[in-house]
Amino acid sequence: MRVVILFGTEMGTAEDTAEHVADALAAHDVSIYDMSDFAVEDLDVRAFHVIVCSTYGDGDLPTGAEPFFEELEDAMPDLTGLRFAVFGLGDSVYGDTFNRGGEIASEKLIARGAIQVGAHGRHDAQTDVRARDMAREWAAALPIPALAPA
Ligand SMILES: Cc1cc2nc3c(=O)[nH]c(=O)nc-3n(C[C@H](O)[C@H](O)[C@H](O)COP(=O)(O)O)c2cc1C
Asked: Which of 47, 58, 117, 122 has its CA 20 to 30 A from that of 85?
């Protein structure tokens, strides 16, 4: 199955995490993009999308994810049938806004008709578990159909 990994980051942790998700999904046809370099028109409803996104400000999307989601709001594409999973990054020290970035990403895609599948990952920077390790385990459990045999 074609898997498109999109990461939204401020300081690079989500990028590193996304690279480890790509490793864990290497049995698929995986490509990986910074959301700041990815156009909404390149979303493909036939591909499985994985969003890896941190949280900044007061429960906001990271700077790297903002242009993509602004374009999504403007273009209002019909994403009916697009399946995606979300691994969010945050820090529970921020209380109520914990992991809002990944949640906002999910809400905006669902609003366009996309379907979220698998567990919603929420890494907490307060824990000793590294985001990349948690994400690898999370990715291995995603319900992505296997590549069709050649
Ligand atoms: C200025 C600042 C604001 C943040 N705000 C939040 C927040 O509101 N909620 C949250 O869960 N995490 C928040 N975080 C934590 C980051 O999301 C977390 O450290 C994440 O791992 C960073 O990933 P990145 O390096 O990919 O941007 C904040 C971090 C910083 C430095």
From this structure: 58
Nearest to 62 by CA among 18, 92, 104: 104
Please report the DSSP string for 68-106 in residue order: HHHHHHHH----TT-EEEEEEEE-GGGGGGTTHHHHHHH
Q: How confident is the model at residue 150 (pLDDT cuts 50, 70, 90)?
A: low
Q: How far is the centre of ligand 1, averaged over its atoms, from the C-alpha of 19 (Å)? A: 19
Task: Note if the pTM is more than 0.70.
Answer: yes
Separation of first and last alpha carbons in the chain: 12
Query: Hey, which of 7, 11, 56 would you mutate to test ligand 1's pocket, going by the most ligand atoms within 8 Å of its Cβ?
Result: 56
